[in-house]
């Protein structure tokens, strides 16, 4: 079911990624240890850290789920594993001007719960699934898209298994 753009009713304008993102996301270098990045995530109560190269350009993302699945569940020492080894790359991101319904569509299609936000070549923010949920009633249209996408995804998976 196609969805029209989600509008912010109080302001009368389309909601864009920059309207709901958390600005200035925390970053780390790929050679930093998983233990250090996990500590930073815990201290800041965040679920992801953007991995940047020596020039500060985003190259990947590490989430709490990555740490659990790729380090803890495998019995690896988080002090000895670098985040560059477990990061998701290439980085999937949206532009700051992307309408929120398109952000939701991309998150659903790619299975991502955290979406970095770029303005040109510069990392300016991050959107977590909780940021979208916090929109409340104004996001119902986007949730309809989410529901139909999840039904379609399940249908495709079932057909791939047979």
Task: Describe what this molecule looks like in 3D.
The chain has helices at 17-20, 34-44, 64-72, 83-86, 100-110, 129-133, 140-161; strands at 7-8, 13-14, 22-23, 27-28, 48-52, 58-63, 94-95, 114-119, 122-128. The protein has 162 residues and is α/β, with parallel strands linked by helices. Strand 8 and strand 9 form a beta hairpin. The chain is globular, with a radius of gyration of 17 Å. Residues 1-11 have low confidence and may be disordered.
Strand content: 15-25%
Biggest beta sheet summary: 4 strands, mixed
How far is the first residue's CA from the last residue's CA? 25 Å
Strand order in space, largest sheet: 3-9-8-7
C-alpha-based Rg, rounded: 17 Å
Query: What general form does the structure show?
Result: globular
Overall pLDDT: 86
Helix content: 40-55%
Short description:
The chain is an alpha/beta fold and about 160 residues long. The chain is built from 7 helices and 9 strands, in the order E-E-H-E-E-H-E-E-H-H-E-H-E-E-H-H.
